[in-house]
UniProtKB/TrEMBL annotation:
Name by which UniProt lists this protein: Reverse transcriptase zinc-binding domain-containing protein
Residues annotated as domain Reverse transcriptase zinc-binding: 1-63
Pfam family, one: zf-RVT
Domain of life from the UniProt record: Eukaryota
Amino acid sequence: MVWNRSIIPRHAFITWIYSHKRLPAKVRRSKYRHQDTVCSLCHSEGEDDQHILFTCPYAQEVWRGLKDWWNLPILQINHSFFESMINIKGPKAKKSMTYAIHTARIYYLWRARNMAVFQNKRTPSHQTIMAIKEQVRNRILFLNQGMHKFQSYADNLLL
């Protein structure tokens, strides 16, 4: 799933790191040296990969914005993220686009976190949502030029 052609390589790489539980979030790094572990985006909980990507209020705002745009499946609480992705139903093209959206979401949430940590800049959630939409839209429309495999979903992407 991570290396699907519809996924932008830098998004795939960050998702691959996440899949191996190797994102250098504050809680993980605090095992090796003493440091603050509070989330850089919401300043309320410990910053681990699950918090940054799923439970942080910032991540949930991004999720809601993307769910309004593309009918994303509800992730199962008792399954891992990747088990939930594998269980997506529907045509292959729709699955590929859903994978692209989810990996772009992981990439841009990690990017927003890094902007907060290293540049002390908070990226508004609507800006993150717009960036995800633009990246996925451009990738899918580019791939659609030659194969026309995503033709039936192109109109939904342009919304």
